[in-house]
Amino acid sequence: MEKELLSLLLPEGMLEYFEVVSMKLKDKTYFIYLEEKNIHPQQFKGDKLTSKGFFDEVSIQDFPLRGKPCYLKIKRRK
């Protein structure tokens, strides 16, 4: 049920590749923190891959929720 509710708030397809780490309401602004899932590309399914961490966090302003600004804080894998 939680995933269904989040899919209504986030852009379409976002939950396929990212997981919600946390959500905060600070100074009348919503912040939703997302991290990219560890999904291997199809051509590397059998190979052993090593994680190199994450790129710097990117902030994207999304549509307002209940009249309050909403920012998506996204971390992508290297």
From TrEMBL:
Protein name: Transposase
